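JOB MANIFEST
job_type = single_chain_structure
chain_count = 1
residues = 384
[input]
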Amino acid sequence: MLAMNYRGPGRVRAEEKPMPEILHPEDCIVKVLRSCICGSDLHLYNGNVPDTRVGTTFGHEFVGEVVELGSEVHKLKLGDKVLVPFNIACGKCSFCRQGLYGNCHESNPEATAVGGIFGYSHTAGGYDGGQAEYVRVPYANFGPTIIPEGMDLDDAVLLTDVVPTGYQAAEMGGIQPGDTVVIFGAGPIGIMAAKCSWLFGAGRVIVIDQNEFRLEFVKNYAKCESYNFKSIEDPVQFIKQTTDWLGADVCIDAVGAEAAGSAMQTITGRKTLLQAGSATALFWAINSVKKGGIVSIVGVYGPTGNLVPIGNVLNKGITIRANQASVKRLLPKLIDHVQKGTIKPKELITHRMPLRNVSDAYRIFSDKLDNCIKPILIPPTAKE
């Protein structure tokens, strides 16, 4: 089958790989109909995540058709169209029973902090992902969700990560009616976090980024304010000034390890890897939030430490909430929002490219060329 193949930092290509096989009675095989490139895939692509091995197939956002079932899968049938949450969860362990499906204790034999994730580094279990024609899906009785009749596949594929992660970013912020919410990062997750902040009653939503086309997009899509940190020079000073010197009620880090804006963070976090990525956005979030405010983190960092102003966290009495999105927990209400038109995920998709052009797709997305917001890949076996 054709699949994306990681060859080292900045190098991916489409190659023939062996077909995935059923390895456990609760596995299924899914023929991929759509897959996305996520901003966190770029952390892998650019070599920022430890133990990202040559030969891995990325892709944790995909939908497809069930084409093979393990002997103990009884909640799916051949031909079902499914959306597959990016986190791999057993549905039975102590953490899954609490709804912490991103922290499944059974799906990741390589680490204890996070559950398994499709197409990520071996710190997330080493599973191949969905930027391929076919993918093996473990725990098929629990994870895959049948796509509702009439739902567009482009909407469905963004329910595997982008919509739940953006929604959970706002949820973890504990937004109260009238709150000012500041989101650092206008990528797909930041855009969706801005959109979802209104659902929790935000009174004002501000997005900070450096890319003008993304700022223009989020301003129109999420009906929010947007500012280029290059033009306001000091985002922390700007946020304090525009909130009567109190600070924002809630700040969301939707950037993670590849944030720009600080030479020191860039050198130590992205160039020399002395810390687990550049923590510029998190630094700004901690210093921009009000005393007693909440910082919500959905931007991805590596498993080692980062330089952040922890003294300010203590002295300001800040609450920090962070986690991988619990996709399966959020899906019922988010499917309802999509079906009612409250959220229109597919409007984020700007580029549709054949899987065989995956190298070009990564270059365009990584370099932010051609006003790219969200690229999706179409395998040759998926007929549009």
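[summary]
The longest helix spans residues 327-340.
The two ends are 18 Å apart (CA to CA).
exit_status = 0
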